[in-house]
Amino acid sequence: MDTMDTGGSTGSGLTGATGLRHSIDVAVIGAGVLGLAATDALLRQGVDVVCFEGREPGQGQSGGLTRTFRHRHDNEAVVRLAAEALTGWREWEKRCGRTLIGPEGAVYAGMEEVDAEGMRRHSVAHHWVDGSEAGTVFGSLSPTSGPLLVDPDAGAIRARRTIEMLTNWAGEHIVQAHVHGVSVPDDGEGVELQTADAIYRARHVLICAGTATPHLAAGAGIDIPLDCALHVRPHFPVREEFKDAPLPCWVDRSGEFGETVYGSVIGSSGTYVVGLIGASVDVPMNAGLPSGTEMESHARRLSNYVRKALPGLVPEPVGVRVCVMSKLPGGSDAFGVWHTPGVTAVTGHNLFKLAPVLGEALADCAHHDRLPAVLAEATEHALVEA
Ligand SMILES: Cc1cc2nc3c(=O)[nH]c(=O)nc-3n(C[C@H](O)[C@H](O)[C@H](O)COP(=O)(O)OP(=O)(O)OC[C@H]3O[C@@H](n4cnc5c(N)ncnc54)[C@H](O)[C@@H]3O)c2cc1C
């Protein structure tokens, strides 16, 4: 990774320097999955772009090994985006010659026909299985009283591999620098960015800084109501005798086993992550550091759930990941993209799966300095309390 050259033109998108100030066409802030996907799309469009990252790429919310790719969402517009994103994932796989979304599929409990309406409307393959035959689609699962919805083209995203691939594609266009702030001076000469080493002016700034997006966007007068909380995700070993049985991604909204949860296999590691979903399962970060006791109690609840619902897993976790969840008022699948001349900012939750399609759309915002209608609609939806 480069540090920024302080003079003249470089391959990393610096188009010139006047005194202490450097000019850039597009500056992306953040090398998480979205910033990297947007940088890649901009590079493919021939745009001069610099992606600023204060740490290592993929160490924020995009960290870790696995994410679920699923089609089903309450908001139909997101079902359509997910279907488009899958095409993008397959293109990325072709470019890098590796699997990025596994063939595991996804299984949902606690759903009714109306919950699959978006899938039906957008021609996304799906079918129902009787809960008494749960083991045929999810080997580790106990029989369920209700039917199970199967999303066969879903799967576990190889998250770390995706970040490595995108980081390679962006190459020297990633610059290691923390951006202290963004502002829009009234001299009409672009948007200003400050780092410890330099001041930059960009024609367009794309803020993809995850939980830090609201802080940076505020400098451009954009107000984003994002809540952040800590989330516990223990992982459990798959029992030897279930290792060859189907191990799909899992969403259980039925409450039949005492909790609502999601789950996903971690690649070929023989372990499976399970996390709680729903209101009040994340520990707010606003009131200082959350207590370890609260986090442990969540891990215990998940062990109890595994004992009842997933006998194919060993109910004692072999590891845990504590991570930051960021949520807009519209709930856990809501995301928003805000635009003002010269600045676009994105944040929300559950965005990993949408990275190929959001990367293209964000690149479009930066290239043409406008917000496409589909992103404006998603943002409106994200601001309505779930
Ligand atoms: C536990 C958990 C489970 C999840 N499960 C799923 C799932 O199953 N499916 C799914 O699709 N999504 C899931 N998500 C959500 C998904 O991982 C995130 O929505 C996505 O990774 C966000 O990517 P991002 O690029 O927007 O943000 P981030 O990955 O957070 O990237 C932001 C980057 O900006 C950098 N940065 C911040 N401030 C500055 C600054 N001032 N200067 C320079 N750099 C800066 C950070 O260092 C970071 O690298 C999950 C998230 C978590 C935490």
TrEMBL record:
<feature type="domain" description="FAD dependent oxidoreductase">
    <location>
        <begin position="25"/>
        <end position="364"/>
    </location>
</feature>
<dbReference type="InterPro" id="IPR036188">
    <property type="entry name" value="FAD/NAD-bd_sf"/>
</dbReference>
<keyword id="KW-0274">FAD</keyword>
<dbReference type="InterPro" id="IPR045170">
    <property type="entry name" value="MTOX"/>
</dbReference>
<keyword id="KW-0285">Flavoprotein</keyword>
<dbReference type="InterPro" id="IPR006076">
    <property type="entry name" value="FAD-dep_OxRdtase"/>
</dbReference>
<keyword id="KW-0560">Oxidoreductase</keyword>
<dbReference type="Pfam" id="PF01266">
    <property type="entry name" value="DAO"/>
</dbReference>
<protein>
    <recommendedName>
        <fullName>FAD dependent oxidoreductase domain-containing protein</fullName>
    </recommendedName>
</protein>
